[in-house]
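User: structure tokens for this one?
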Amino acid sequence: MLPSHLECKACGLKIVSYSKLNACGLGGTFTATSYADPVDYFEDDFRDRYAHLEEDNNEP
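Assistant:
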């Protein structure tokens, strides 16, 4: 990805446009990575599919 703007909430500095960021040495490419836990992703589907089943602990 290429950055398009920078805003510092602490000091209020705003740099808008890639060319200005690149001139400041802040225009390098970067990678954003996201991770989705399968349990969180499929939890609603799992709950809906098996909600009607009763718990069976196999106890006499």
